[in-house]
Each structure stands twice: as C-alpha cells, then as structure tokens.
Amino acid sequence: MDTFERVRQCKLCDKTLPMGAKPIIQGSYKAKVLIIGQAPGLKAHQTCQPFNDPSGDRLRDWLGVSRAQFYNPDLFAIMPMAFCYPGKGKSGDLPPPKICAPTWHSQVLATLSHVSLTLLIGQYAQKCYLTQYSSVTELVKNADFSSQSHLPLPHPSPRNQIWLKKHDWFEKDSVPQLKTRVSAALSS
C-alpha cells in the first residue's frame, strides 16, 4: 500500500471530528506541483475531492489550469495540513487538527521527488513551512513569484473577498507570474 492510500485509511481523529475521519489527499510520485492547504471543506468532505467548491474554482483560475489538469494526480499533489473536515466554527471552518502534519507530511513529501513548485495556501501551511511567518499579506506581498520554490498564497475562499479587494495587486501582479510558474512546472 502506498503512502497516499495509508493516509486515506487513517482514523487517528475519527472520534474527535464531527463527521468522522474521511481523509482527503491527492497525488502520485510523479506530481509536479504540490498544494498544501488548510483542511478539506464540507463539500470536499461530501464529495471526497479536494477544492471541489468555489475556492477550488478560484484557485484553478489563479493557476491557469483546467479541472482535468488540477485533478490529475500525476500533475498536482494536494496535501492539506489536516486531511479531514474539522467542522464548522464561528467564522468559517475550524482550524486543522495538529496531529495530521506531524504524522503524515514527511512520509508524503518523501514520495514527491518530482515536485518543483510548492504552493502554501493560508496561514497554517505558511506557519508550518516558511521559517519567518509574519502574516499572509506580508508573505504574499514580499514573495518572489518568479523564483521561489515555496510560494505563499492567500486562501481562495469567497470569504476572502475583502482581502482580495483590499490587495488588488495580488490578482493583477502576482497571479500572472503564478500562472507562468505553474505552466513551467507542469511542462518540465
């Protein structure tokens, strides 16, 4: 059984999650781009498909890829900070449980030898994988989209509409560079 299948069968948090454990991960050892996000949302949980919601539509637009490309595990690996839907909180989904990343991430990363670009979506992934976290805004604003191998991105959620309007430079300046980087990674 490969690492992705072992993650899919994980039940570590089954009793603590409101809808039980249903780990969602995508990828193969051939994947070229790695997306590390927060945790699956309710629709992803219901359909067993990551980013299968308006957030995913926006993310695919930012990346300049089709659904078919995005859901091709030989192109994109998707490894959230927590693999199961954490439940609803006051202002959105609850934070990802902290057990998944230390339990599984190093094992998954060890299988991804062809990844040349890692996209860190939101504060949880950025705090874990970038040594100098200040804020999502500062990291994204100061990122070198033309050369960094680990690129910070804001969360593509519709709840982030205010951030996107307030920081219109992201979609105007950063997204075109992001599309170029993704295209290059996929064709390598």
What can you tell me about this protein's structure?
It is a single chain. This protein is an alpha/beta fold and 188 residues long. 41% of the residues lie in helices and 11% in strands. The chain has helices at 3-8, 42-47, 54-63, 67-70, 100-111, 122-129, 136-142, 161-166, 169-187, and strands at residues 33-36, 76-78, 88-89, 92-93, 117-121, 150-153. The longest helix is centred in the last third of the chain and has 19 residues, at 169-187. The radius of gyration is 16 Å and the shape is globular. The two termini are 28 Å apart.
Question: Which helices and strands, and how do they pair?
Answer:
Blueprint: H1 3-8, E1 33-36, H2 42-47, H3 54-63, H4 67-70, E2 76-78, E3 88-89, E4 92-93, H5 100-111, E5 117-121, H6 122-129, H7 136-142, E6 150-153, H8 161-166, H9 169-187
Structural class: alpha/beta
Number of helices: 9
What's the N-to-C terminus distance? 28 Å
Q: Would you list the SSEs in sequence order as H and E?
A: HEHHHEEEHEHHEHH
Spatially, the strands of the biggest sheet line up as: 2-1-5-6
The tally of beta strands, per DSSP, is 6
What oligomeric assembly is this protein in?
Answer: single chain
**What is the 3D shape?**
globular
Rg is 16 Å
Main sheet makeup? 4 strands, parallel
Strand content: 5-15%
In brief:
The protein is of the alpha/beta class and 188 residues long.
Give descriptors for this structure.
HI_0220.2, globular, Uracil-DNA glycosylase family protein, Uracil-DNA_glycosylase-like_sf, 4-stranded parallel β-sheet, Uracil-DNA_glycosylase-like, single chain, alpha/beta
